[in-house]
Every structure is written in structure tokens, then in C-alpha cells.
Write a structure and sequence with these properties.
- The complex is a heterodimer.
- By secondary structure, chain A is mainly α.
- Helix content of chain A is about 65%, strand content about 0%.
- Chain A is built from 9 helices and no strands.
- The model of chain A has no long low-confidence stretch (mean pLDDT about 80).
- In chain B, strand 1 and strand 2 (about 20-30) form a beta hairpin.
- Chain B is globular, with a radius of gyration of 17 Å.
- The chains are: A mainly alpha, B alpha/beta.
């Protein structure tokens, strides 16, 4: 089993299983030494064998690229799931701090921190975590797809097309998409960190520590 | 100097569960005095310390800390008084468990304008005085009870406060560590600190260095 739609096996077994005569073939490769003549050869073959599908290497590469993009729609669904999980995390954070977190804020107030000092610290902490996560996630995604050429997922997306010829995923950075992900994650996470801390910081430190 | 003048503290005032914790409390702790606030659990000792530290506000009355009235100070200014004049030592130490001893000690100075070098210099000096220099990089949760308390004392001293407030400081210590704590307090008194310590531990009752006792029972001075 090679991909989700490919099983590789010796030719003789294939012929036996599908009862294909020795003189028959499903795919024939034609090599054209002069690349300028590829289209002419293609037209001639099409004329000679109108029932065959004649495709050049460049046609295949273009279709593979499209196929990868099309199937990545599957991953859009997974992306939405990730967003839902992220917003559940955010909701959980905004709904309240743990007793331990509240106690820490109480301690900070008791040793002389002002509410604004605590909010400033939470802002820096939340900002650093979310920015680091955003850049790390984006960087890893680009590295995985364009540098490593999306191992495993590429086979899943391209299926039989994986066999021949090879093709490369061309790096494309869509700044609109990146900006959208940034807006939906970084400020949201920072707010989710600050709001409960502010709630805890305005309570009497004495009450929080008891 | 700490002055309490007719202080009342009522929780849930006007409600069914109203609780009158402090009733018309008046006392004076002079500069460089070591005063023990003694009384059973629930008598209001911790509430008095919290009011002096500006952690809570009294329902009525006047509190003077080092010539400054703090009873009605907004939270922001109460924090400044706390940061500049007061060092707290809590019963349960109240350290941040996931920070090292050094980080816990320097926490009060982080919002200050002091450089990290100056902060560390102060911390090193205090840790040396309290014999915990080698413990600086260890997480406080891995330290023994006595070491944790010395870290808590160091934290209370890092901002060079005039006043030290200690709430049941020996409640979690054995006798040997309690005696060591008393020695530390005596040294702080010699350095000119004003100390107000709330405790019902009899170990403090016969100390020569104690200048004054305030007996409190059910929120009233007896």
C-alpha cells in the first residue's frame, strides 16, 4: 500500500489479476528529446489515437499542484476544529483563574505591587506566549510544507500522482491569511490572560490569600 | 510609628451574616519597638496586620503608619506605602512555589526603578545575613520549612522597610527553628526596625526584647 489509492505490485501479478494481455498497456511513456516538439508530438498522437488521453509532463505538474491545493480543503475542516479548541481554551481562561493563580496575585499585592504592575506583567507574559506561539506555528507550518515538502500529508493529498513525475510545492505566503490568524489568536489570548488577572487584582489581597 | 485610633472592621455590614471583627481598637506602637499582638485564633490579630499593611480598609477609624494616614488611601497609594515602608512575614510564608528563592526574595522590587544589578546586590547581602546564600537558585518548594521562612523574611526586608509585620510566624516551625526566628527578629530590632508580631505562641511571652504586648480577644483590646 503506497498511498490512499495506490498499491504497488509486480507487473505479472497485475496482468494476472486484471487479465491483461502481454501486448496491452494502460500507460505508455513517450520521451521527446527536443522539448520544442513536445506539443507537436502530443497533437500527432492525439490525432492517431483519438481515444487516448495524451498529457505532457507540464500538464501533470500543474494538475498535481491543483490537486494538493484542492485536497488541502480537508485540512480546513481540521483548522476550524483547532480554532474551536483554541476558543474553548480562551473561554476557560477568561472564566476564572485557579486558586493558585489568585493566591500568587494576592502575594504580589501584599509585597507592594500595584494593580497596574500585575496587569503589565500579565500583558507581557500573555504577549510573549502568544507571539512566540504564532511565529513558531507559522514557521513550522511553512517549513513543513515548503522545505520538507509536506511528508505523509503530500502522499495523502496527491494519491496516485505521487508516483511520477516528481513536483515541488512552490512557496507562497499569503499575508492576508497570516494577518487573519494573528488577529484571531494573539490579541484574543492576551485579553483572555488580562481580564481574569484584573478581576483577581482588584479583590483585596487579604481575601485572596486566606 | 503605628497608630490605631478607634478602628472598627465589619464584614458584610447590614447583612444577615454581618461580622464585627474589630471593635473600637486603639493602640500605639512607637518607632523601633517590638510589640506582640496576642490572642486566640479568630480574635482579629491578622485583620489588624492587614489594615496596617493597607491590604484591607477599616470600616471606621484612623490608621497612621509612619506619619501617614492610610485608612482611606486608594489601593494604588496603599500599595506604594506597603512597598516603601512595610515588610510582611506570613504564617504560611506565602512564597511563589515555582520560583527560586532568589526570585521570591526580589519579587517586591521588580516594579521598582532599581536596576537588576542593584536588586541582586541587595538580595545577596540579605541572603548572606540569613545564611541562605547557597539556596538562591533552588525552587522554594524544595526548601525545608525553616529555609522557606528565611526566604520569606529576606523578601520582607529587600525593600528596606521601617516596619515589619509578622502573622503567626512560628505556627509552622518546630521549637529550634522558632528560636532561630526570634534571634533574627532581635537582630532586626537592633537595626532599628519597628516590629509588630501577631501570635498566640507562648514562646514570645517571656522575651526580654519585647517592648509591649497588646492583648486582643473577640475583636477587642483587653
Amino acid at each position: 500500500m503506497e498511498t490512499n489509492d495506490v498499491i504497488l505490485m509486480p507487473e505479472k501479478y497485475v496482468r494476472e489479476i486484471f487479465d491483461i494481455n502481454e501486448s496491452w498497456a494502460t500507460d505508455i511513456v513517450v520521451k521527446v528529446p527536443n522539448s520544442e516538439e513536445i506539443n507537436i508530438v502530443k497533437q500527432k498522437l492525439q490525432y492517431m489515437y483519438p481515444d487516448c488521453r495524451i498529457i505532457s509532463r507540464s500538464d501533470i505538474e500543474a494538475s498535481y499542484q491543483n490537486l494538493f491545493d484542492y485536497k488541502s480543503g480537508l485540512f480546513l475542516a481540521l483548522l476550524i476544529t483547532s480554532f474551536v479548541a483554541f476558543f474553548i481554551l480562551v473561554y476557560d481562561k477568561t472564566s476564572g483563574l485557579s486558586a493558585e493563580d489568585k493566591r500568587e496575585i494576592g502575594i504580589l499585592k501584599a509585597v507592594g505591587w500595584k494593580t497596574e504592575n500585575i496587569l503589565q506583567m500579565e500583558f507581557i507574559e500573555g504577549g510573549l506566549i502568544s507571539l512566540f506561539s504564532f511565529f513558531l506555528g507559522t514557521g513550522l507550518a511553512l517549513f513543513y510544507v515548503y522545505f520538507l515538502q509536506a511528508p505523509i500529508l503530500r502522499d495523502l493529498f496527491t494519491g496516485v500522482s505521487k508516483l511520477k513525475p516528481s513536483f515541488n510545492l512552490i512557496p507562497v505566503i499569503d499575508f492576508q491569511v497570516l494577518f487573519l490568524i494573528f488577529v484571531l489568536t494573539v490579541p484574543v489570548y492576551i485579553m483572555a490572560t488580562i481580564i481574569p488577572s484584573w478581576r483577581a487584582a482588584i479583590i483585596d489581597a487579604d481575601e485572596v490569600m486566606r | 510609628m503605628i497608630k490605631f485610633n478607634g478602628i472598627n472592621k465589619i464584614y458584610n455590614a447590614g447583612q444577615v451574616n454581618e461580622h464585627h471583627v474589630l471593635k473600637d481598637i486603639t493602640f500605639l506602637v512607637k518607632e523601633n519597638q517590638f510589640t506582640i499582638l496576642r490572642g486566640p485564633s479568630g480574635s482579629g490579630k491578622s485583620t489588624i496586620l492587614s489594615i496596617i499593611g493597607g491590604l484591607i480598609k477599616p470600616t471606621s477609624g484612623e490608621v497612621i503608619v509612619d506619619d501617614k494616614s492610610i485608612a482611606k488611601l486608594p489601593d494604588r497609594f496603599a500599595a506604594i506605602v506597603r512597598q516603601q515602608k512595610i515588610g510582611f512575614i506570613f504564617q504560611k510564608f506565602n512564597l511563589i512555589p515555582n520560583l527560586s528563592a532568589l526570585d521570591n526574595i526580589t519579587v517586591p522590587l521588580i516594579p521598582s526603578k532599581l536596576s537588576r544589578v542593584e536588586i541582586n546586590k541587595r538580595a545577596d547581602q540579605i541572603m548572606e545575613e540569613l545564611s541562605i546564600s547557597e539556596k538562591g537558585n533552588i525552587l522554594v518548594k524544595k526548601l525545608s520549612g525553616g529555609e522557606q521562612q528565611r526566604v520569606a523574611i529576606a523578601r520582607s526586608l529587600i525593600n528596606k522597610p521601617k516596619i515589619i509585620l509578622a502573622d503567626e510566624p512560628t505556627a509552622n516551625l518546630d521549637r529550634k527553628l522558632s528560636l532561630s526566628f526570634i534571634q533574627t527578629i532581635e537582630e532586626l530590632k537592633k537595626k532599628g526596625k519597628t516590629i509588630l508580631l501577631a501570635s498566640h505562641d507562648p514562646i514570645f511571652y517571656d522575651l526580654e526584647c519585647v517592648d509591649n504586648f497588646i492583648n486582643i480577644r473577640l475583636g477587642e483590646i483587653k
